[in-house]
Design brief:
By secondary structure, the chain is an all-alpha fold. The chain has helices spanning about 5-20, 25-40, 50-65, 70-110, 125-140, 150-160, 170-175, 185-220, 230-260, 275-280, 285-300, 310-325, 325-350, 360-380, 385-400, 405-425, 430-435. The longest helix has about 40 residues, at about 70-110. The radius of gyration is 23 Å and the shape is globular.
Length: about 450
């Protein structure tokens, strides 16, 4: 089930109705848990078993870990959680990718190997709920939180339907305390939640799917014919598409949760208004970037131990692989890692210079950040490296074809890009609530 469907409208109306009844809080939580399983099962019912498996393993692993008297047993329990969760993620998301690369490796050694055809179906949202439940066991292992007392609460934390399939990735320390007291949205909370749902659906259905996606698809399905203007229009279209798609879905999740009385963290804070790549990752997919920082980058040594640049590159390469099972996604992450490393060097040279703090210079740096981010999106969107290189070559003036995208499409994407970048720049120090507060009531 997806937010932009009539099925969800009916489903959500029923959930809101049940949640508004004068029932005991425990019954309401049970209703939300069942609704979350129904929401997930609407896509493919058997994969609910994977949710149950992750929930059961991490529930008991965390409790036994906390009660364990020895460090060795705690490590073994933490390892069991890691193997279970990452094993499922690895099999379903990366099984075919690993098998294909094994075949290529064997051919490099002169061995012809033809594996039987595999038909692995990727469970929707597995990347998100795997990281979410792992954050809980990792926090218990590190002593940052104690095991939660209620199994019902923990199961609802893992499966809460608004953010189950596309984030944000919520920490247990942020969500579980909200389950202690009864939650029901006030009129103001409900109206703001429905407003966020409307905004998110507009971003997803109109801006991403109707305006940007067709233009992006035209360019990236025929990269050999793309000229310079085509390549730029197609890439700008995708840069807007992926933001409106992902941000729109996260906004829907936050709005749906708010309608039920729950608060989820912001996942996007106007990233195309970022000045530099550290700033970009503080604004783009915040729940993932902070997860990678806390559970990968810092354990690797962060800024204090080892080679900082190696730590950054490792984190971003794995972050790229998290997004998709393909080397183009790894290249996307590697480019962002290289940008971050380069930015660290630039800050050492010019970080304190007075001219860097001028508003016009900062805006120019913001535009440069956006343009460089657009180059990374080429690898994210292209099906192969050959397609990516053709688009980049065309963007740099080496393309001599023409796709006849049409004046209307080109103008739409150009206007949308200008509005997007300037809108993010205007909003970079503001919130949507601040802007809404000064609007007239109507």
């Amino acid at each position: 089930m997806i937010f932009n469907s009539l099925t969800f409208v009916v489903f959500f109306a029923v959930v809101l109705g049940l949640h508004s009844l004068p029932l005991p809080w425990r019954v309401k939580k049970f209703n939300l848990l069942v609704a979350s399983y129904v929401f997930y099962a609407a896509w493919n019912p058997p994969f609910v078993i994977l949710l149950w498996l992750s929930t059961i393993v991490d529930w008991f692993a965390s409790r036994w870990m906390y009660a364990s008297p020895t460090r060795r047993s705690r490590r073994l329990l933490m390892l069991a959680s890691l193997v279970t969760n990452l094993g499922l993620l690895g099999f379903f998301k990366y099984g075919t990718f690993l098998l294909d690369n094994f075949v290529v490796l064997m051919r490099a050694f002169g061995v012809e190997y033809s594996p039987p055809a595999s038909h692995i179906v990727l469970p929707v949202g597995i990347s998100f709920y795997t990281f979410q439940t792992l954050s809980y066991t990792l926090d218990v292992y590190r002593g940052r939180c104690k095991p939660w007392d209620s199994g019902l609460d923990f199961a609802l934390y893992v499966t809460f339907f608004p953010q189950l399939v596309a984030g944000p990735i919520v920490r247990a320390t942020d969500f579980l305390p909200q389950l202690v007291e009864p939650k029901r949205a006030s009129g103001r909370y409900l109206s703001w939640g429905l407003t966020l749902l409307a905004i998110g659906l507009f971003e997803k259905m109109i801006l991403a799917d109707s305006i940007c996606a067709p233009v992006s698809d035209m360019v990236y399905s025929a990269t050999a014919q793309a000229g310079m203007l085509d390549a730029w229009i197609g890439t700008l279209a995708f840069s807007a598409q992926i933001f409106f798609d992902f941000s729109g879905y996260s906004t829907c999740a936050i709005g749906a949760a708010m309608c039920l009385g729950f608060a989820l963290p912001d996942n996007f804070l106007y990233p195309y208004g970022a000045v530099g790549f550290s700033d970009f990752w503080r604004r783009w997919h915040i729940s993932l970037s902070t997860w990678l920082r806390d559970y990968l980058y810092i354990p690797l040594g962060g800024n204090r131990k080892g080679n900082v640049n190696v730590n950054l590159m490792t984190t971003m390469l794995l972050g790229g692989l998290w997004h998709g099972a393909g080397w183009t996604f790894v290249a996307w992450g590697g480019l962002h890692g290289a940008y971050l490393v380069g930015e660290r060097g630039a800050r050492r040279l010019w970080g304190e210079a007075a001219w860097v703090r001028r508003e016009l210079v900062r805006f120019a740096l913001g535009v440069a950040t956006y343009v460089l981010v657009c180059f990374t999106w080429v690898f994210f969107r292209a099906h192969t490296f050959a397609d990516a290189w053709r688009v980049i070559r065309a963007m740099l003036g080496g393309g001599h074809g023409s796709l006849s995208l049409g004046l209307a499409n080109s103008c739409n994407i150009a206007l949308l890009t200008v509005c997007l970048v300037f809108g993010h720049w205007y909003m970079r120090q503001r919130t949507l609530e601040d802007v809404a507060r000064v609007f007239p009531w109507w």
